Structures are given as structure tokens and as C-alpha cells.
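Sample intake sheet
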Amino acid sequence: MKKGLLFFFLMCAGACLPALAQQDDARALQYHEMRYQPQLHFSVGVGANTDMSEPSPNPASLLFGVRPETVPAFDLRMMHLFAPRFGWYADVRFKLFKSRNVYETLGSQLGEALLNKLLPGIDHLHLAYSIGGVFRIEGDRWQCYPRLGIGQSYYGTSRKAESIKEGEKELLLNCDGAAICLNFGVSTQYRLTPRMALLFDIFWQQPLSTAKSYLYEKEGEAEAQEYVYRSSTIGRELNVSLGVNFCFGPARR
């Protein structure tokens, strides 16, 4: 009886092995035929965003807020690979952190309180986005996508000629922390299935425009103090993330 069961098991295993080998060959062929074909990719990533801007002792620079050096970030990216070697992308990124603002207003405090209720410990969702071109380097399982793009990043709170009066103290604030930025990044993927891949992404963001802030401070009869601050480094960031990429498009020729 035992010999009969063993013989039956070996017969089944022998019949299954060729079928499994055929499936592996078909899957390998499918991966190979997907290379450089038109595809649409959508990726989600979570990682760390590091501020590389240069600090300043100028009081007007504090209008932007003081952020931690490294904070969590959440990325969404779409890539349309329309040609054998090229494509385009669009992405949006949310940097999550509690900003230490020296000059606050009631409106900003209410907004921060609401966000802090939804995401404890967080008072600002700092947005950045970009669009640009992609170069395709694709193997059967591994893909590498260098990209170059341009976009905009918001460093801190923007204020347009905002006036604050506290007793005899008068403040006039003007701040624009939105910077036009050049982005260079590389995404590396490993396909788990024809439709899903693990993703490692790294990119450098370099501001092209200058962030500006202005502070006018007067108290009583004392002489007014004016501070002007301009920075070409606000918006300079390094972002590293891990995530999942989903592929849509023809799986074979």
C-alpha cells in the first residue's frame, strides 16, 4: 500500500513538473516582451524628505517657519511610457511636519489646529509637484527610469502684506515661500508580477527662483526695524522613498 502511494505521488509530481516549467517559460517570455512597450505606470511611495537649504539668522527668514531637517513624505507619480526609450511623468508630494512659526496669525493657528486633529503632531501639508521627461532602461524583471522635470515646491506659510497689531506693537509681514524647482530623480523597479513592482526612488530638488520675505516691526515710539530676506536655497531637498508601482498596458506584443 505504501509503495503504491509513493509510486502514485511520484507519477503526479512527474506530470506537474513539465507544466510548471512551461508556466515559468511563458511568464519569462511575457516579461521579456513587455520591455519598451507602451505602458502607463502609477506609483505610491513613502519615505524621508531632507531639507538642504542654508539657515539664516535674519529674523525675516523665520516667516517661512522652521522645519525639522528630515521629515516623512508621501509621493504619488504617474508615468506614460509612449516610446521605446522615452516617456513623461507627473508627480505630487506631501511633506508632513510640524513647523515652528515665530510670527503666527489667527487664521494659520486655526488651520494648524484642524490639521493637527486629523493628523496628530502635524500642522502643515507642504505640497510639491513636477512634470518632465523619462528615459527608459528596462530588463525582464528590473527597470530603471532616470527623469528630469520642473515644478513648484512650497516651503512654508505665504503671507501677502499681512498686518498684525498687538497693543503698541505693529508687524507688517510679507512672505512668499513658493519656489520654481528643477528635479532630477531615478526610479528603480523590480517586477513581482506583470502588473506590480517594488519601487525605490531617489531625487534631488534644486530651486530656480528666489524665496523672499519682508518684516516691518515697530513698538511704541521706538524706531521701526525693517528686515528683508532673500534665499536661493529654500526648496533645496533630497527625497528617498520606497513604494509599489502598478503597470497598465499591453503585457505582450
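Comment: Residues 2-34 form the longest helix (33 residues). The CA atoms of residues 122 and 129 lie 20 Å apart.
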